[in-house]
Design goal:
Elements lengths: L5 H23 L12 E3 L2 E3 L2 H5 L2 H6 L5 H6 L5 H5 L21 E11 L10 H16 L14 E12 L1 H5 L4 H4 L11 E6 L6 E3 L2 H4 L7 E4 L17 H10 L45 E2 L2 E2 L19 H14 L24 E8 L4 E5 L2 H9 L4 E9 L8 E8 L4 E5 L2 H8 L5 E9 L7 E9 L4 E5 L2 H8 L5 E10 L4
Parallel strand pairs: 3-4, 3-5, 5-7
Antiparallel strand pairs: 1-2, 6-7, 8-9, 10-11, 10-12, 13-14, 13-15, 16-17, 16-18
The structure holds zinc ion.
Length: 504
């Protein structure tokens, strides 16, 4: 369990930092034309069918472009010893995190600086995208019910858009590291505002300053590649749901990546885990960055925190901060950014999302590690009660369905087997009747209503069966379906029905 490959990893970080600088400079020197009007994306002489295809390529993943924070932290490595002994949430150690239990809401005013090229068009980020980005931050940091981050921990940190500045300045827009000097002309009091800059970053998605080193200085900032700002940022999948900003703000509030400073598999037991890895003990050690959205990946002998906002997985894969990450962020605010948050007795409840249009309702997926079984329910109260107990864990919103009958939908029958202790769902009335006539299955209720076939915007819900476990499993995740079907345990049976992946 010793820190492994230190030299290798350090070398990687330096290479990454160099690459990050070079992609910024590359953009400055005109290679920004890699983003052309056609779908095709060209970089380093290589052609990709789209920017999105590039973002999912090994070339992007090996470039260090996902996040530039490693290069920021490395700048302060020479101060390792003095830093380590500093406040409870220094750059290299955590102490007394339990003292930072969230009991009041901290609201952070945000000033967004949209830096555009001289033409005033290149680099534009609309007000709608800016507002949607603030929404995403609030959903994620408050773990708002029925939002994509609803299964996380409520950090009781929220964000308020205080203002937007727009600039037409190609020198700033294309600047590499010099941008930090130019910020002195733009920054809104960094002691009192979170300054977020959007600009050309080449193929780097985002970068943030560390509170222990930069709090309150003119270059104290979160910088986001303008293409990746806001929810549903165009043509930037799989980093198009505003989670680049959620991630970078996490750095700004004192968090590190789950693989931490050196990578490898550091000792994950307290107290060691407070001074290695990501300086947090309730994120399992992770050997290295994870991309995409693999099915329950493991390294270092435990499940990797692949859904954590501080990982490198797809935006749609992420849904949580751990409670100790919440403590560390609040520690960073209280110690390094004491004038940044306001209204700290604000009783504002977590944001409630706009109700789904067209009456759709979420299906919550819970899992019991003891029972090795999933449970699906549209009853939020049932979900909350089960999730609070020791048996069930809420995993996320599975898909969206109709709670009642309407034109073009069919009922989903729920059956239960007391002998097998599992539920079965079917839209097949005949299957329902046949099973109900046996001594094993009992028809309980119509669970919800779904589409029997494909319709615009709908997604298939796959049904798998395990003969060994005598259980069905339902998923709309094609990757999960394929991974499970490749095992000897699960067999893909059929498309159960069609539902919606989002609230519409
Ligand atoms: Zn990062």
């Amino acid at each position: 369990m010793m820190k492994q490959n230190n030299h290798y990893k350090l070398a990687t970080i330096f290479v990454s930092a160099t690459l990050i600088l070079s992609v910024i400079l590359l953009a400055k020197s005109g290679a920004a034309s890699a983003f052309n009007d056609e779908d095709e994306f060209v970089t380093n002489g290589k052609r990709y069918s789209s920017y999105s295809a590039y973002l999912q390529s090994d070339e992007f993943r090996n470039s260090g472009g996902r996040c530039g924070f490693d290069s920021i932290r490395e700048k302060f490595r020479h101060r390792y010893d003095e830093e380590k002994a500093a406040l409870d949430c220094s750059l290299f150690q955590s102490d007394n995190l339990g003292d930072y239990f969230p009991n009041v809401i901290y609201t952070i005013p945000v000033w967004v600086h949209v830096i555009r090229a001289d033409d005033g068009l290149t680099g534009e980020v609309s007000d709608a995208l800016i507002n949607s980005q603030i929404d995403v931050l609030n959903e994620d940091y408050r773990a708002g019910a029925n939002t994509p981050g609803g299964s996380g921990n409520d950090a009781q940190i929220q964000f308020r858009l205080a203002g937007v500045s727009r600039y037409n300045n190609s020198i700033w827009f294309y600047a590499g590291e010099e941008i930090y000097a130019y910020m002195s002309s733009m920054a809104k009091d960094p002691h009192r505002y979170l300054n977020i800059y959007t600009k050309e970053l080449g193929t780097l998605l985002g970068i943030a300053s560390a509170p222990a080193e930069s709090a309150g200085q003119s270059d104290d900032s979160v910088m986001i590649n303008y293409r990746h700002f806001g929810r549903n940022s165009p043509d930037t999948a799989p980093y198009d749901q505003g989670r680049t900003t959620t991630h970078e703000v996490g750095h700004y509030l004192g968090l590190d990546h789950p693989w931490g400073i050196f990578g490898g598999c550091p000792n994950g037991d307290p107290p060691f885990c407070y001074s290695n890895g990501d300086l947090i003990c309730d994120t399992n050690p992770e050997e290295r960055e994870i991309y995409g959205c693999p099915y329950q990946p493991e390294s270092c002998g435990s499940l990797d925190p692949y859904k954590n906002y501080m990982n490198y997985t797809d935006d749609s894969c992420m849904d949580q901060f751990t409670i100790e990450q919440v403590y560390r962020m609040r520690c960073s605010l209280e110690n390094y950014r004491p004038n940044l948050y306001e209204g700290n007795t604000d009783p504002t409840p977590p944001p409630t999302p706009t109700p789904c249009t067209d009456g759709l309702t979420p299906v919550f997926r819970l899992y019991s590690e003891g029972l090795l079984v999933h449970l699906f329910t549209t009853d939020e109260n049932e979900k909350n009660v089960l999730d609070a107990g020791p048996v069930w864990n809420f995993e996320g919103i599975a898909w969206y369905v109709y709670p009642g009958p309407r034109d073009g939908v069919v009922p989903v029958y729920r059956l239960y087997s007391d002998a097998l202790k599992v539920h079965l769902y079917t839209t097949d009335e005949n299957e329902k009747n046949v099973l109900n006539a046996t001594s094993i299955w009992n028809f309980e209720v119509i669970a919800w209503y779904v589409l029997p076939g494909y319709q615009d915007g709908a997604v298939p819900v796959y049904r798998l069966y395990s003969d060994g476990l005598k259980k069905h499993l339902y998923t709309r995740d094609e990757n999960e379906k394929n991974v499970l079907n490749a095992t000897s345990v699960w067999v893909y049976e059929t498309i159960a029905y069609y539902a919606y992946a989002t609230c519409q």
